[in-house]
Amino acid sequence: VKRAGGNDLRFYERTMNAASAERLAMEADLRHAVERGELLIEYQPVISARHLRPVGAEALVRWLHPRLGRLPPDRFIPLADETGLIAELGAWVLCEAARQARAWLDAGHERVRVSVNVSAVQFSQPRLLEVVADALRRSALPPACLVLEITETSLMADVESAAGMLRALKNMGVQVAVDDFGTGYSSLSYLKRLPIDIIKIDKSFVRELCENDDDAAIVRAIIALAGSLRLATIAEGVESAGQAEVLRLAGCDFLQGFHFSRPTPAAQLVL
Ligand code: C2E
Ligand code: CA
Ligand code: CA
Ligand code: CA
């Protein structure tokens, strides 16, 4: 081994050790995050494209980490999935979001809907059904007011068991949305085999909607497809009035994005 190579190797080992120590520390912290009340949910309004009024909101979890500060979900949901902590974390988000939706109903907002993200691991676990039933029972939220967002990738991982899980969820009366639609390189045949209600058009197709003819064509095709399958459409990542107008004219049902509202704690949100 050359001297320089040896140094590189030692450097590599040191950074790897630092990385895995950081990971272990994060895992230990995440284990206590729920009980210590460090998680919070922000809500991003979902807007009716036709009336330009909010009809509900998506729950997006954040972690107020004691040392690292406020962490976005991409920094800890994958870790929660790998360690199994997602079960507890996901149950907390579901209960909390259902309770919040019930509060909006009680405040006079008729037919409000709350959308909750379900990770791939959560979706593969049969206990999800009990967790959802429990959240509905404890909040007394009508099941039709709850939308579960499941990514196209997790639906495609095992279409047969996905079908079973979705049928059970539909029997409970909740709604199902396919999240990140169009990013999964999947065949479209699953759309007719799975009982879903809503397609969420991924924000990667919305970003350059007004500049890029191909993106505009893809978005129109998705909306047409959804229409013929009698599925509703939500476009995510809407950042400008121009994008909102193109989507509305194309027949998209619901809009979501910074143009209307950033994700916001419920206390500061007017729905
Ligand atoms: P997602 O479900 O695709 O959520 C949309 C993401 O886009 C959110 O990021 C949201 O804040 C962001 N966003 C909203 N409007 C705009 C916009 O106009 N422009 C742009 N560029 N972005 C916008 P966030 O909150 O960081 O969440 C990231 C991902 O983390 C989510 O992607 C979802 O997959 C996951 N996630 C969030 N909350 C939960 C949760 O409670 N449970 C699980 N399992 N996953 C969650
Ligand atoms: Ca989502
Ligand atoms: Ca999405
Ligand atoms: Ca996403």
From TrEMBL:
* Boundaries of every EAL domain copy: 23-271
GO BP terms, alphabetized: phosphorelay signal transduction system
Range covered out of full length = 304 to 574 of 574
Source species, domain of life: Bacteria
Is-annotated flag, keyword Phosphoprotein? yes
Put simply, this protein is called: EAL domain-containing protein
Q: What keywords are annotated for this sequence in UniProt?
A: Phosphoprotein
